[in-house]
């Protein structure tokens, strides 16, 4: 057994290399061959078995590859000047690893406050509502008060129409109004207002109107102002700087008109400095042109006012008639009167007086007398100025009999004759060369 074991161990042992010899030439090493083991030796020797492979563990996914770095320019070492002028961009920073922060602690929800009971605006404003008042919005820019009144009069009799429009730009118009229905026999104003509110969205000259009942907002604001005044002695809030500037410009315009009427350039400049002229300022400007007899500028100012959406009143129309009368254009004055009547504005005693005076200046006593009779029929009570104008018209034409009749009529009505009437009578007697009656009037004038 010892010889059998020693023999395989002898075959497994490797031969040792011989000692180096001083020969100059190295010989190649001899090939080494292993001899196969005998069957007896292989049966006695067994190789150890390999251990089983470890179980497969799931590996984490690999991190994403970093972005590729830009390739360096092979000519960067040679492009010295270019690298100085435009250096290459710096390399991108390394990707940051996402740090996982611990989740914040949960926030406890705060208890919601209990909702407070709010006042119902409709209930509050119900006491401030005005019966029979209707709001109408989205009116066309050129809508007039008479047209709106004619359209909504089908629901009941109207007491008043308040048309509110912007005066800055004719194309940008506020376009709303307030209707006030009146109580009539058999129907109340509130019933008429409710019938009008039912046509909300009706088409009016290409616009869809907004029609609704009054919400009492204006009455509530007035009540708050009244309460503020009673409690703290304060009225409305002070106006803005824009309102202060506008009021100052209006005062300056009136001052220039009164102090320097001969300087028309200063008057026009002061008027143009007003940011938003009202009907009053337009009327004063028309009066200024009327006194100068400038009917063209008076008409232009009148049309400018209407283009801004400001409806003319009797004073503005009378001033325009005065401008035509001073210019001795009575045909234009009568056209203004017709326009005035078409607007539904009645002629005043001042309008009749201006027309009679204008016809007297052109020696048309018949037209002046017709207007005087119309004024007496429509107005009833007349004053000494209109009597003086009609007397002057007949004295200019030499019709002293009619002038004397008018003087007696004036005295019977208890109207004191102004001094202009005496001057007109004396001038008329001078025209017909009646010296005796002229002296009688003069003696009466001295008394």
Automatic annotation (TrEMBL):
<dbReference type="InterPro" id="IPR012677">
    <property type="entry name" value="Nucleotide-bd_a/b_plait_sf"/>
</dbReference>
<feature type="region of interest" description="Disordered">
    <location>
        <begin position="15"/>
        <end position="126"/>
    </location>
</feature>
<dbReference type="InterPro" id="IPR002885">
    <property type="entry name" value="PPR_rpt"/>
</dbReference>
<keyword id="KW-0694">RNA-binding</keyword>
<dbReference type="InterPro" id="IPR011990">
    <property type="entry name" value="TPR-like_helical_dom_sf"/>
</dbReference>
<feature type="compositionally biased region" description="Basic and acidic residues">
    <location>
        <begin position="222"/>
        <end position="235"/>
    </location>
</feature>
<dbReference type="InterPro" id="IPR035979">
    <property type="entry name" value="RBD_domain_sf"/>
</dbReference>
<keyword id="KW-0677">Repeat</keyword>
<feature type="compositionally biased region" description="Pro residues">
    <location>
        <begin position="49"/>
        <end position="73"/>
    </location>
</feature>
<feature type="repeat" description="PPR">
    <location>
        <begin position="313"/>
        <end position="347"/>
    </location>
</feature>
<feature type="compositionally biased region" description="Low complexity">
    <location>
        <begin position="74"/>
        <end position="85"/>
    </location>
</feature>
<dbReference type="InterPro" id="IPR000504">
    <property type="entry name" value="RRM_dom"/>
</dbReference>
<feature type="compositionally biased region" description="Acidic residues">
    <location>
        <begin position="112"/>
        <end position="125"/>
    </location>
</feature>
<protein>
    <recommendedName>
        <fullName>RRM domain-containing protein</fullName>
    </recommendedName>
</protein>
<feature type="compositionally biased region" description="Low complexity">
    <location>
        <begin position="32"/>
        <end position="48"/>
    </location>
</feature>
<feature type="domain" description="RRM">
    <location>
        <begin position="132"/>
        <end position="216"/>
    </location>
</feature>
<dbReference type="Pfam" id="PF00076">
    <property type="entry name" value="RRM_1"/>
</dbReference>
<comment type="similarity">
    <text>Belongs to the PPR family. P subfamily.</text>
</comment>
<dbReference type="Pfam" id="PF13812">
    <property type="entry name" value="PPR_3"/>
</dbReference>
<keyword id="KW-0809">Transit peptide</keyword>
<feature type="repeat" description="PPR">
    <location>
        <begin position="383"/>
        <end position="417"/>
    </location>
</feature>
<dbReference type="GO" id="GO:0003723">
    <property type="term" value="F:RNA binding"/>
</dbReference>
<feature type="compositionally biased region" description="Low complexity">
    <location>
        <begin position="15"/>
        <end position="24"/>
    </location>
</feature>
<feature type="compositionally biased region" description="Pro residues">
    <location>
        <begin position="86"/>
        <end position="108"/>
    </location>
</feature>
<feature type="repeat" description="PPR">
    <location>
        <begin position="278"/>
        <end position="312"/>
    </location>
</feature>
<dbReference type="Pfam" id="PF01535">
    <property type="entry name" value="PPR"/>
</dbReference>
<feature type="region of interest" description="Disordered">
    <location>
        <begin position="222"/>
        <end position="245"/>
    </location>
</feature>
């Amino acid at each position: 057994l010892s010889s059998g074991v020693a023999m395989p161990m002898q075959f497994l042992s490797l031969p040792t290399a011989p000692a180096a010899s001083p020969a100059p030439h190295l010989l190649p090493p001899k090939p080494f061959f292993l001899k196969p083991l005998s069957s007896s030796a292989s049966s006695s020797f067994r190789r150890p078995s390999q251990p089983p492979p470890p179980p497969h563990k799931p590996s984490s996914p690999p991190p994403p590859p970093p972005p590729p770095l830009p390739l360096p320019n092979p000519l960067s070492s040679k492009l010295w000047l270019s690298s100085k002028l435009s250096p290459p961009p710096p390399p991108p920073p390394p990707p940051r690893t996402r740090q996982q922060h611990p989740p914040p602690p949960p926030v406890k929800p705060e208890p919601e406050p209990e909702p407070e009971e709010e006042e119902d605006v409709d209930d509050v404003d119900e006491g401030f509502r005005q019966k029979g008042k209707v709001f109408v919005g989205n009116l066309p820019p050129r809508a007039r008060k008479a047209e709106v009144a004619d359209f909504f009069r089908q629901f009941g009799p109207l007491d008043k129409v308040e048309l509110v429009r912007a005066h800055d730009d004719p194309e940008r118009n506020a376009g709303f109004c307030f209707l006030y229905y009146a109580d009539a026999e058999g129907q109340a104003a509130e019933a008429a207002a409710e019938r009008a509110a039912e046509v909300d969205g009706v088409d009016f000259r290409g616009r869809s109107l907004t029609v609704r009942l009054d919400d009492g907002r204006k009455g509530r604001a007035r009540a708050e102002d009244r309460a503020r005044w009673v409690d703290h002695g304060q009225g409305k809030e002070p106006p803005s700087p824009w309102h202060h500037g506008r009021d100052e410009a209006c005062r300056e315009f009136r001052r220039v008109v009164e102090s320097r009427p001969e300087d028309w350039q200063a008057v026009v400049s002061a008027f143009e400095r007003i940011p938003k002229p009202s009907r009053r300022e337009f009327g004063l400007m028309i009066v200024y042109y009327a006194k100068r007899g400038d009917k063209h500028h008076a008409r232009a100012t009148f049309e400018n006012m209407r283009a801004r959406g400001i409806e003319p009143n009797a004073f503005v129309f009378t001033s325009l008639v005065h401008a035509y009368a001073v210019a001795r254009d009575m045909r234009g004055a009568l056209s203004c009167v017709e326009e005035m009547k078409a607007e539904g504005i009645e002629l005043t005693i001042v309008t009749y007086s201006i027309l009679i005076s204008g016809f007297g200046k052109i020696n048309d006593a018949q037209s002046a007398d017709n207007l005087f009779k119309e004024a007496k029929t429509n107005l009833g009570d007349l004053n000494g100025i209109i009597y003086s104008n009609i007397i002057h018209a007949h004295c200019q034409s030499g019709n002293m009999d009619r002038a004397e009749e008018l003087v007696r009529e004036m005295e019977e009505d208890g109207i004191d004759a102004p001094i202009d009437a005496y001057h007109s009578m004396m001038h008329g007697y001078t025209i017909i060369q009646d010296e005796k009656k002229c002296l009688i009037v003069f003696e009466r004038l001295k008394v």
